[in-house]
Amino acid sequence: MTVYADTPRWPRHGMLWGHLISDTSLAELHETAARADLPLRSFDLDHYDWPGTARERLVAAGVTFVGNRELTRALIGSGLRIPLVDRPAARVRRSAEHAAQLGLAEVPRDLIVGLLGHVDPLPAPGRARPGAFRMTRDDLSAPPRIEAHDESGRRAAIALLTQLDELARAAGAAGFTGQVLELGT
User: Fold this and answer.
1) Choosing a second label site near 102 at 20 to 30 A (CA), which of 47, 74, 110, 164?
2) Residues 72 and 10 in one domain
3) CA angle, 101 then 105 then 106, to 5°
């Protein structure tokens, strides 16, 4: 049972990111990520994305550092890998399960209820349709983070958040926490 990390080389949010995987189980992966104090949001279906600034914490958590190819071989060998071609379908299944959990009739493009995982990024301006948005709420005491390229996307995010809050409250929660990506109409 080993948890592996590769070298951060993927740019996002102004820093470089690497991948963290388990050769055994997602439970082992989540436990190690928690010991390294990685945010739950950095989980992506079969791995955690980790910023280069977390290297010392990963070392302290007992992570083994390997090259990209060795990390990929270990993930494939674990049986946990979700191939790139299958990731969209995995997101659709996850979104449908989370929408059903809330009782949401219309399933958004990408939906996560709770703090574990993240939805796909909002496409760049010019690549997203009008009304597209990405919304995140991790803390009910803070306003949600809404990414939208136009006012219709911002309005759509607020309208969906209102609906998600109502459904979450009906299910006994204080409100909706999670993420949504909707690509507009």
Assistant:
1) 47
2) yes
3) 110
